[in-house]
């Protein structure tokens, strides 16, 4: 389970950073079926596998925090292997529940800021953003949502399909380069969060030009996500994906760069909403 989860995270088959953190935490349950002679042996194996999972995506603050939380809650606490396994089982459930609860609370806080009749623009794929919109629509708001295609992986298409299944939500899709066209009809940009650290907001590629364009047009930008994605003393590492996502046929003397994330100064974001509240 751990090896499969690491491979899935590295391949970015799970698009939500919160979902990645939950999946990695649940994967540690594999240790419950292993045999250990001593508590020290168990703790070494836990530290090793938590580290492997954490390093599978060094850009995900939620994943980093989840693995650290598990380690801090267990290392040095149990007095027997049986106690260690029970503590791990309980900790896995608590950490996973905490992530889901925080995401839900952040979405609820964001939904309260979305007004009936608003037109939003969203980028890429964020389960917290989707939950925010769903909550607002369920509470009676009628919304228009523009979705960028989010190339090169076109995750905006997945977002659009989810939004299309929501009542009271009118969905429009545009290519990334049409963001300026779409923004002129929008009241707000609503984005997810990969990580906030050191005064920088990191999110999927395409976020920075979107934020710059929105500011130029006077459209407020809101970022919503779990507070666990705000982290100090964290070195964010961008990922560079396969060039084939950009160009299927290689071209001689052309180097294809395919970064996964954009870095945006946090001061360019008008509102940050987490489970801890709202910062403007």
Automatic annotation (TrEMBL):
Q: Which organism is it from?
A: Halorubrum rutilum
- Asked if the Swiss-Prot or TrEMBL record annotates the protein with the keyword Protein biosynthesis, the reply is yes
Q: Which Gene3D superfamilies match?
A: translation initiation factor eif-2b, domain 1, Translation initiation factor eif-2b, domain 2
Which PANTHER family does the UniProt entry name for this protein?
A: TRANSLATION INITIATION FACTOR EIF-2B SUBUNIT ALPHA (PTHR45860:SF1)
Name of one Pfam family that matches: IF-2B
Q: What is this protein called?
A: Translation initiation factor eIF-2B
Molecular function (GO) terms listed? translation initiation factor activity
- What's the source species' lineage? Archaea, Methanobacteriati, Methanobacteriota, Stenosarchaea group, Halobacteria
As for family, the record states: Belongs to the eIF-2B alpha/beta/delta subunits family.
């Amino acid at each position: 389970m751990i090896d499969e989860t690491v491979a899935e995270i590295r391949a970015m088959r799970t698009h939500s950073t919160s979902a990645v953190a939950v999946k990695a935490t649940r994967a540690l349950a594999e240790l419950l079926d292993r045999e250990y002679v001593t508590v020290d042996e168990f703790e070494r194996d836990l530290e090793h596998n938590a580290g492997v999972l954490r390093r599978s995506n060094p850009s995900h603050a939620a994943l980093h925090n989840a693995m650290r939380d598990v380690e801090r809650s267990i290392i040095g606490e149990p007095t027997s292997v049986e106690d260690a396994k029970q503590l791990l089982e309980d900790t896995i459930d608590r950490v996973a529940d905490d992530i889901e609860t925080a995401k839900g609370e952040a979405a609820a806080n964001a939904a309260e800021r979305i007004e009936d009749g608003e037109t939003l623009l969203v980028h890429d794929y964020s389960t917290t953003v989707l939950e925010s919109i769903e909550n607002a629509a369920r509470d009676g708001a009628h919304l228009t949502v523009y979705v960028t295609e989010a190339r090169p992986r076109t995750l905006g298409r997945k977002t659009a399909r989810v939004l299309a299944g929501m009542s009271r939500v009118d969905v429009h899709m545009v290519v990334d380069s049409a963001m300026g066209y779409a923004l002129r009809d929008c009241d707000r940009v609503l984005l997810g969060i990969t990580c906030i650290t050191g005064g920088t907001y990191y999110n999927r590629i395409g976020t920075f030009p979107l934020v710059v364009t929105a500011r130029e047009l006077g459209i407020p930008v809101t970022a919503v996500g779990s507070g666990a994605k705000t982290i100090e003393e964290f070195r964010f590492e961008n990922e560079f994906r396969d060039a084939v996502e950009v160009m299927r046929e290689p071209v001689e003397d052309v180097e294809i760069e395919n970064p996964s994330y954009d870095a945006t100064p946090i001061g360019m974001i008008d509102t940050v909403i987490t489970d801890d509240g709202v910062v403007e």
